[in-house]
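Quick one - inputs below.
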Amino acid sequence: MSYLANTPEDVACMLRAVGVSELAALFADIPKEILCTTWLDLPPALSELELTDRLSQLAGDNVSVGQKICFLGGGSYDHFIPAVVELLASRSEFLTSYTPYQPEASQGNLQAMFEYQTLICQLTGLDVSNASLYDGGSATAEAVLMALSVLPARKKVVVSQTVHPEYRQILATYLANQEVEILTLPAENGATSLQKLEEVSDDQVACVVIQHPNFFGVLEDVAAAAQIAHREGALLIEVFDPISLGMLKGPAELGADIAVAEGQALGIPLGFGGPYLGILACREPFLRRLPGRLVGQTQDRDGRRCFVLTLQTREQHIRRANATSNVCTNHALLALRASIYLALLGPQGLAEVARLCWNKAHYAAQRITADGRLKLAFDRPFFKEFAVRDGQGQVKSLLAHAEREGFFAGLPLGRWYPELDDCFSVAVTERRSREQIDALADCLSHA
Amino acid sequence: MRNKEVVRLLFELSRPGRRAVRWPACDVPECEPPPPEAVREEPLPLPELSELDVVRHYTSLATFNLAVDTHFYPLGSCTMKYNPKRNEKLANLPGLTDLHPYQPQASVQGMLRLLYELQQFLAEISGLPAVSLQPAAGAHGELTALLIAAAYFRKLGEPRCKVLIPDSAHGTNPASAKMAGFEPVEVRSNPQGRIDLEDLAVKLDDKVAVLMITNPNTLGLFETHIVDITRKVHECGGLIYLDGANMNAVLGYVRPGDCGVDMMHFNPHKTFSSPHGGGGPGAGPICVAEKLAPYLPVPVIGRRGEEYFLDDQRPDSIGRVRSFFGNVAVLVRAWCYLRTLGPDGLRGVAEHAVLNANYLLTKLKPILDVPYGERCMHEFVVSAARVKRERGISALDIAKRLIDYGFHPPTVYFPLTVKEALMIEPTETESRETLDAFAQALVKIVAEDSQVLQQAPTTTPVRRPDEVTAARHPVLKWTP
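Output:
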């Protein structure tokens, strides 16, 4: 394939205009010693037909969640995506434009981003949202960096062990070259130990990070954690699940100062993990420390309402080393998908999907634990995901058996929590039917 | 037909009780609700809309954007080339999109193989053997590489605190350096627009961890002393990072690893044609020299015989930089692009990108000043400083007026080293006629009365938004 437009005649004419005799002469500035002397060792070009065959073959070597019934969660969920989301978000004018530096040429993107910011504020109850980050994990790290810059004298960060393990790993990576100490709060019966939080809280703590519902699906007492954090002047960062907000109290109401989330559940395909959507919102006083792009409303020369990128003096292309973050390219197209999803669902649709997840997850928990081999690992309220313990300690072979029977039945927890080596978590979205849940329960009990 | 009316906000279209999505009836017994203290008391204040409301709304908004598919988009440093449609279609195969990141690895062998192959392609193109596909964007790749450098020097037992960055670099470079815990130090450009070797010599010492270099640089010039520069930095024990934003210019001509570069990122959304999505997603895979391979973030895609696997058992790794496995769908498009071009196609990309830029440069030289370079690589920077002084026409006026002529404006006021800069990158996928038409438009614009230009644009839904008020009194969300 080739996507070049110039014909040999064009090339000849253009070279003449430039005043060189051949294409290679355009590279005369490059020292000879570093010019490639051979072709790159890459496979030869394929036609569209060959490419289609090759990629279809690779895709066919995978087993998709259309082929096995998926009960996997852990921050990525098999929610239903209305057709309108895909069709609108794949329009050329959204897909093939870029960062809206020229507002007159980008009002579509700018208004969509302004609406996204509003939707996230409506969802979280917080005052401001940025226009998107990469994913839930890097958004969590950015939120912590933000807290550290709001409270520059403080050098400790407290993170619950029930926050997604990969998010905690990302945070540790981001902070590795800074003089900041990360304290991890242990889990007790699947939820953050608030007593331990009391113990470690002092005036050196910049922020406390809590996930609700947490990595195991368990509901945390965010309000109590916020109270403890605030008592010593620390900020509370809540990692939330956007779908849960159809039913559960939101971050602002629970006392969070900064809220972050993985937005994948809002109309974004599983896609083997990306690209996803990093959501980040905060209370107004921290506005100037927000990372990433922000869209603001203003008026044009003729008094018409319009939208522009604003407060850009926080950003790398203006402030360089003193920017609030290095983020440049963000995840605008995924934010657009989330906006379309939320616009389609509305308050009622989101409440319904949350309730469906709740009911189905609890039904599944009851069915799966009915025969006694599997027990709920934690005796606490959960949302759409729950951990079970295998009395026989055979998680690996049990999940392998389920896979042979047509299920991605759950996520083994021992990988991140050695003490939970005999446990796995099961996520149940609105897509799972009673029949599928019953079949999984039967399969697990006949293992 | 393009909608000229200002589109109302979603929230202004909302009517209580209107809805678009219906879920199936619950087929399991209702269970006990959550504890009352956890339950939301008020319904969410989200808008209520019909499906047609939503479709018409976003379709109207789409018509308010200029895009590569609708207009020439010569946004410098962003490589707004054509995004092949087949890659969109193929990246959306259910066997690629409907994969959960925690599926057993045996069930995603096709995907892992594709990613493994992409690692190999990038290693070959860069001349650097070890690859991580994890970073989510170019800036994220920079941060990742700098964290690798920090870990490398820690392991050597000689922590270093400084990162040298030319003054013409992208703003992400100093921002990433700061975020990784380094002190960014600026290196001046010389009168030819390239790194000032004397200034570099003054600033280079054993505290320097990394020199970040963009080559070709943001002026569209090849750093001709690259080998000399990398040697000097290496003599001081430092590492070289290449900001790969401009790799389109040298594909198949220069491999950064062969010039002494130790680490670099690619922008698949620029160089390898995945669409920019109105601001993202991109991806920022990095390639590093062998000695830095142990520090790459986890997981790396590995291979044992015919089996592909996620390798996270790497004790010296800096850890994770992103959840799951990076921006996979973007990487799939990059794989498609590389498979359809092959080695000769890639070299053709560089040749035609550089040809188109030089042709346009030749056409524009009589109209606007070109402060640096007789020739350029894939892009060039012209200055409106003289026409501003003489006629009161700024770079911004020219940019706005270009929209009236049917072109997306170039990048303006960057790099910061050029006054009234217009940074123009035509890319290889544009035709001579398009370049001629663009040059013709600029000839006309520069000849226009400054008062006409200051009124521009006149054909857009809105004109010259008041950005000062937007920043002074921020309105960042709709309120009833």
